[in-house]
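Collaborator request, handled under Task 6.
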Amino acid sequence: MLQILRRKAQSTFIQIIVVIIALVFIFWGVGSNLSGDRQAAVVVNGDEVSFQDYQQAYDRTYERFSQQFGGNMPKDLAESLGIKQQVINQLIQTSLLRQGAQKMGIYVSAEEVRKVIEGMVQFQDNGAFSMDRYKAVLTNIRTAPTKFEKSMRTDRLAEVAVREISNFASVATESEIQEIYSQLNEKVVVNFVSFKPSDYLNQVQTDDAGLSAWYETVKDNYKTSPEIQLKYFTFTYDKIADKVVIDDSQIENYYQENTQLYTVPEQRKASHILFKTTADDSQQVFQEKEAKAEKVLALAKNGSNFADLAKEYSEGPSRENGGELGYFSRGQMVPAFDDAVFSMEKGAVSEVVQTQFGYHIIYLEDIKPASTRSLEEVKAQIVTTLKEKEAESLAFQVANSAYENIIAAGGLDQYLSATPDAELQTTELFKREAAPDDLKKDSIFLDKAFSLNKGDFSSLIKGNSGYAIFYVENVKEPETPALIDIKELLTNDFKTAESKKLAQQAADDLLKQLHDGGSLEEMAAAKGYAVTNSGELSRDGQNDKTTFPQQLLSEAFLLSGNSPLPQEVGQDGDNYYVYSFLSRTLPKMPEGSTEIEQYRTSLLNFKQQQLLSAWLQNQQVKAKISTHPSL
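Structure tokens returned to the collaborator:
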């Protein structure tokens, strides 16, 4: 189980995050084909996603990522994160979820849509739904109420589908929890011998003939870097953004259209008393626990102090602090518990609530209403965003105009004569690593510049930071230096390379002999190698007091008494390691550990995520999907 968790966790969480992001978007109509556009960005089994919906989804994804970088994420970073493909994937998956919900017979009523809309903070004044605000917000985003409500009903299906599919994974057994705890907290001990190239340097002999022969095999590594000399223009987004003026109405409109980006969801503070059950318990145990819960519930409703009751009766890890769970927002708890808490009034005590963990009595201590950061709080961030958006369009217009004027003038010199205030940049010969700052920060600019020949005039180049135009005045091709000119450097490099070979060969020989029979301690003693005991090693190695390389931990944990040796010599940097398994400790979770519920929740969430991911992958394989060529 643990190995599955460790191998699959990253991709699984990425999948589920994509779905969650999609569900945030669907509250604004993303994913439904309501725009009437003739061309669709994405089509999934005939369900069309318009370009308007795609652009809204892209903008919101970019904004969310950008907020993690202080509201200003570089465009090249956005591209490297693959935001475009993430948006396409999320739209496809949201469509598949909607279609899946319809096939399951899930129906979203008008009353349910009404309740969802009334609960959205975007449409509330002082915590209560306001029809005037509702109409005003929809007017600002140019959407009619009927169209918005139709979109809400359609896309609400996706959220319900996620919940229903996830609910099929509802049990995390005690044995699974123990297995995960044991394997996550297990320790191993190995003995190891390290082979450092520096220990073999004195064994390397050099002479002119040998050095010359070696140089012939590696001389391309010593070529000088190419150099170029440029005249160029750059039209970067940041320069143009500085000149863009954003008025208050633009800021207000963007804020109203994207209020959800600045929304803090409602949070509730609750305590509970838990009477634990597991899937392995008998029906009698379930009946006894439920009866006990009902008796304690009566005490709570008759005025007994809830915290005292929790300390006396609760079987959960929160009993020591009176059952208190702190503040949490909707969706952070298992569905039954979540539904109960978010349907209660402040100060109320619930009826007995059953979840996969057992029977709960819940006391709702406090409610923090959903809130939205004020326009003043986010104004500077919005200004930056709007400037960047306008700068992207303006940068192309300015750059394209300059390029066309250069062509029309008959060349760069003629253009400069007619346009003396043009901001032309000039350089001497430079290597890539010594490029001017405005080029160095944009890899596309550099790649294109160094691909040109002497006398070339580039096309209009779109980079990560804006646009550029290059004229190459001179090129200095790479040169291979004569051996005599770099003899000292070559000698040192040769010794280093040969000492690495000797260290690796010694490690390989020792490991081969160990596989043929014998212990590490005996073999090492015979050869004069020092054997080091690693001490107890943990999987993450964070607090280990050892010189055993952290990079080799995963391989060390694959060893056992029956298979004590790795198949290959370990390497960490320039050093090589031969190691042998000594012992393994598999601890059991202490009785009454406060971590058990955390492990249970994490395991259950993992199972649900795996199930949802598998369902989506299966549906996507079978689906007929097309994406517009422009994407």
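The cover message to the collaborator said: "The chain has 22 helices and 20 strands. The chain has a mean pLDDT of 85. Please let us know whether this matches your experimental observations."
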